[in-house]
Amino acid sequence: MLQQRTLKSLTRAVGVGVHGGQRVELTLRPAPPNTGIIFRRVDLPQPVDIPARAESVCDTRMASTLSPNGDPGAPKVATVEHLMSACAGLGLDNLYVDITAEEVPILDGSAAAFVYLLQSAGIELQNAPKRFLRVLKPIEVREGEGPSLKWARLEPYHGYKLSFEIDFDHPAVDQTGQRVEFDFGSGQYKRDIARARTFGFTKDVEMMRSRGLGLGGSMDNVIVVDDYRVLNAEGLRYDDEFVKHKILDAIGDLFIVGYPLLASYSAFKSGHALNNKLLRALLADASAYEIATFENSAQAPRGLADLAPAW
Length: 311
Prior knowledge:
By secondary structure, this protein is an alpha+beta fold. Helix content is 21%, strand content 29%.
């Protein structure tokens, strides 16, 4: 049987939210089988549980934000996508995330620090079959026309692979890879995807700060790009770090569905909003998916049955 996974022990991190700039403490704790990923706002007089589910997404401006049942007036937890991406990358099914503010800390702007935290706590197999959401027919969402067109698509695939293309029409971005494909079967999430950092343009900073966003951003946690070049002294971690970060985000956004996917995802200029719209379109069509398990792990797609090594 291909088994569910949680942590062996708890682990903690302290950081700031990239948008709110607030100091936040995070405690990642083991959870029983079939729990999923549950965020818990422990700073409130009465702690509030916020499960990672497609219908919990209440805001997608600059990040994926969750609240109970997607209620915009309820307690929230924002910028969940990098932590969710790390959980997907390591095959974690069940986790409690205790958090002391309404935004997950940005740490270094990638998923690498979360991967390190999770692996340092150790990964434990649980006595329950790992459940996948298997896509049975193509689902696509599109927005805009001509130069403003963007789209995202899920198609049947025995495994999990993603392809993403960006088009920013910016000299610094145009010099890097614009399209990347990643297959989970490679087992190289940590090496090839996790270290890709979020990025921002100096021309957008004033607008973002006027809306209360980006207050915790710095060159320690964001690739900063002016009109012509990358300003960070150390440059890029990957030749195609911009598009790899978009895949990192998509992995996190899609894992919000509550299960690892068996699907091929492809996208052009997609973002948090379109990724969530894609999940909702999938879930709205009961004939488009099924929940799958593997009694014989040898039947599982290559790479998905391997336990991520602990450091």
